[in-house]
Amino acid sequence: MDTITKEQPHHDAKDAHHDPMPFWRKYIFATDHKVIGYQYMFTAFFFLLFGFGLVMLMRWQLAYPGRPLPVLGKLIASVLGDSSMPGGIMVPEFYNALGAMHGTIMIFLGIVPLAFAAFGNFVIPLQIGSPDMVFPKINAASYWSYFVGGVVMLASFWAPGGAAQSGWTSYTPLAVIAPTGQTLWIIGMVFLITSSLLGAINFISTIIQCRAPGMTWMRLPYFVWAQLMTSFLLVLAFPPLEAAGIMQLMDRLAGTSFFLPEGLVVAAKSNVIAGYARSGGGTSLLWQHLFWFLGHPEVYVLILPAMGIVAEVIAANARRPIWGYRALVFSTLTIGFLSFIVWAHHMYMTGMGSRISVFFQTTTVLISVPSVLLLTCLILSLWGGSIRFTSSMLFAVGFLPMFGIGGLTGLPLAFNAIDLFLHDTYYVIGHFHYVVAPGTIFALFAGLYHWYPKATGRKMNESLGKLHFWGSFVCMNCIFAPMMIQGMQGVSRRLYDGGATYLLAEPTLHWNIFMSMAAWTLALFQIPFLINFIVSMKLGEKASDNPWEATTLEWSTATPPPHGNWPTLPTVYRTAYEYSVPGAARDFTPQTQPQE
Amino acid sequence: MDIPYTIQERPDTGLYNAKVGIWLFLASEVMLFGALFSTYIVLRVGSFNWMPGRDFDLNIPIGTFNTAVLILSSMTMVMAWAALKIPNFTMFNLKIDHFDWFRIFLGLTILCGLIFLGVKSFEYYGKFHHHHFPETHTFYAIYFTLTGLHALHVFGGMVVNAYLFGRGACTALVTVALTILYMAIFGPMHDTATGGGAAFIAGAAWLGIFGLPLGIFFLAVLIWKNNNSAEMWKSNPERLTNRVEVSGLFWHFVDLVWIFLFPVLYLL
To answer: Which of A165, A339, A410, A447 is the most buried (most CB within 10 A)?
Structure first.
């Protein structure tokens, strides 16, 4: 660490680290927040692609129910055995496992680690002017806990009976009597929860303790605020799921019945009636309450970091300050608070009583107010700007209408009368995928294109970036808009054949092939991105320390930032987004520039 | 560049880093145990014929004794911290050094933890002996889940305290715990297997005759010699004091959880 107290000249990627640390210390068991960010990013990208692969398999079954999948089907059958796709034809249990694992992997192993852990780790210390996270070793422990959780989840595909099949929500009592994969799911989740907990505690402590001199709360970039709120959600919402997981584990292994009602009788596959004589007195609703107590704050864990990234990208590319910075901050805090009292809107259909429904309906409608404020502030920030349509800006601007559609389609679901009809249909799938897929994932791409030059010293290729954006934009809408149509027709989200044997689904059935084609095309449009991402590290256009002419602190240090980030701690003199200030020398004034 | 405020307090927050971290961790722990207590309430309210703990064979005097032990351990924990924090700390006019007082009180804290876990195992043994398992009744389900999770926390706190006592003590504690775990898991297995019983007894005897004295000797040497805390007390006393404070905060929390657990499970 002490080597960087010397004044350092401009850096090349090769000699960024002067310390003669061995490879395994620097990149494998790293404690530097940037390297841990990269580790998170690569692992999370692998899982995003993997989870996308799972849903592409599902889309085959939905488009062509019962038809053997050419080539790949046989391959999967030979790897996973006949309980998956014998002869290339998917069995229902495997379809269920794909669905459950797609949700689990995308949320807990893909988006949260990428949006929260990867971007948070890389950007937060740089933006607040800290040499590292406050607990570097705990930070490393957080990554490795995540890694182990991921391995357990992947391994569960080879468990007897296959991976977890009870949906990403693992609803009881089915999850309690499901095959071994469910046990591995719980164990994997415990590791992932531990990882998030360690990461979140680290982030909050860093933001509270390690802001550079002059970095007051209202001078923090909005991204940091978003990550701070996300961390609080993770710290407070995940432990109840851990408790629920422990109890489900007890139900499965120790024979308790926390979640099994008395005298439960289940028709097993062989039509033998299996009676579950347990200690009695449990309730399945309890699982749902505990699960959604995490599950709903989790939605904001998925969206708030995305909001933060979009705010940064829009400010830098629209060349004007974020409109309503304080409104953004206080909306975020309000969302954080309200997100803890809306969870039961996922449970209108459970018969928990209309009075409780009314309460949760009210809070759910309330939370849409700060959410709309966030979006409005970001849209108004574009007004009168001289916008640079870089790839990252395209993704950020693309995020706005996509999140808007996702959010507005959620409003009908908030009202319990309408939800009775739409619950568990493809409408719900379409709604939350609009929020998370073209919403959050677009924001993540925006962030990648935006901070790539800081991490590597080179820019990504703009033409490939635009190809990536337009292809993804069109395909995403082709996948998720038809789901709304199917959902309003009443097609259930859990049908193994996509509704082929379901009379009600008949008029909308032709959309299945269209959506599947769009999903596979979406995969093709990720190829230019992957090529761009890898090739640009060596061949991309060289970038200066501040290629986007942005104001926040991370652009004031060397590229790539050395271990310890700064030779001496920077001092902050102004708010985060001083773009196009009248009378200023340039159209951006960095936070480190002293007041006149 | 070093990370700021690892030892000194940040002026505007008045806290050093680890203290922020431990309070956040405790907040998450509150949510964890809160969820389990909520479960207890939901199960009890939703039950037609709930049998409270006192109608089962939960032993209230033993539970009371354990409560007292934990409260006592919280006191010794504070004294261990005070021994480091207060200049020229001593008691009863004894000419004993700061650091030795610290080790005495921390040792007492760990001892109280051991007594607590010992009594708890005795209680568990009684339950199992009378064929009361988590699956027997929903009350036992929540009883074993809550007290088991709490016991894990007690053990975790003891490991940290043992590390502060000296790295050797930590190694010793973990080794003993793993041995007990091994005996608890594999002992009954060998016993029931055909012909396995004799082999297990022979193995245990072998371990007892040769392994145990050797083990105790090595552990004693470890505890005595391997003392990282004494080194830190010389080189960076404030850092050690902070560590003890943070560990103490966790220990008090574990104590507090038990103070809620005891009336809820034993008395109500």
So the answer is: A447
